[in-house]
Amino acid sequence: MSHGHSHGGGGCRCAAEREEPPEQRGLAYGLYLRIDLERLQCLNESREGSGRGVFKPWEERTDRSKFVESDADEELLFNIPFTGNVKLKGIIIMGEDDESHPSEMRLYKNIPQMSFDDTDREPDQTFSLNRDLTGELEYATKISRFSNVHHLSIHISKNFGADTTKVFYIGLRGEWTELRRHEVTICNYEASPTQQTTKSIRLPHRRTSFPKGWRRLPQ
C-alpha cells in the first residue's frame, strides 16, 4: 500500500503497525473523551450536529450510521476545543470508498472560532490523504508544533473529485493534561458568576478623621 505524504513533516503509517496490541489500540485513540463536545463546531455540515458524531471510540469507527457530509461544496472545517492541554501525536481520517473521501487535511492549533476565511493563513501542518476505509492509517503530527494544544482546527480542503465530502471517523492520538489550578478556578468562576454572592468579604476597619471642631453624629 502506498501511503500519503505530508507537507511540513510527519507521515502516514498503519495503526496496526503501532506498538500497542489490538486490545489497547482503542485507548491510544481516546482523546475524543477530552473534547468539549458542546462547543465543538463543524462548518459546512449538511446536517446540523453530525460533525460531532465522527469523534467516537476507535472500536466504533466502522459504524457507518454516524458520519458527516459537507453541504455547499467539498470543504469541512472542524473546530475542536479540548478540556485541557493536549500533545497531539497522530490523526486517523476514515471516509467512503469513492471520490467523496478527503484527499487533503490542514491542521491549525489554538485558533478558537476559526472560519473558512481564516484558512487562507499558513497551516501548522498539511497532509495529503490516502483512502482509508477501515480506520487503519495514522498521520503523524509534528509533536514540537502540537505539544500544547487547547483548540484544534481540522480543515478538509479537498476530496478526490466529488461534489461533497463524507467522513465517518476521526481518531486523535496523544496525551492530555489537566488545566492548571488557577485556570480551572477562573473557568468555574466565569461559568457560575453567582457563586461570588455566597462568599462574604471582611473589609478592614478604617478610622475616619474629622476636621477640628467637628464631631460624629450619634447613630
Give structural notes.
The protein is mostly beta strands and 219 residues long. It has one domain (22-177): PITH domain (Jelly Rolls, Sandwich). Helices cover 8% and strands 32% of the residues. The protein contains two helices and ten strands. It has helices at 22-28, 181-191; strands spanning 6-7, 12-14, 41-43, 68-69, 76-95, 102-109, 125-128, 137-140, 149-159, 166-177. The radius of gyration is 24 Å and the shape is globular.
Q: pLDDT average, as an integer?
A: 82
- Number of separate helices: 2
Sheet-strand content, in percent, reads 25-35%
Helix-strand category: mainly beta
Total domain count: 1
Find the CATH superfamily: PITH domain
Uncertain stretches:
1-10, 184-210
CA gyration radius, whole angstroms = 24 Å
Distance between the termini: 90 Å
Q: Please write the CATH class name.
A: Mainly Beta
Largest sheet composition: 10 strands, antiparallel
The CATH architecture comes to Sandwich
At CATH level 3, the topology is: Jelly Rolls
Helical content (DSSP H or I, runs of 4+): under 10%
Shape from CA axes? globular
Number of strands: 10
Topology pattern, helix = H, strand = E: EEHEEEEEEEEH
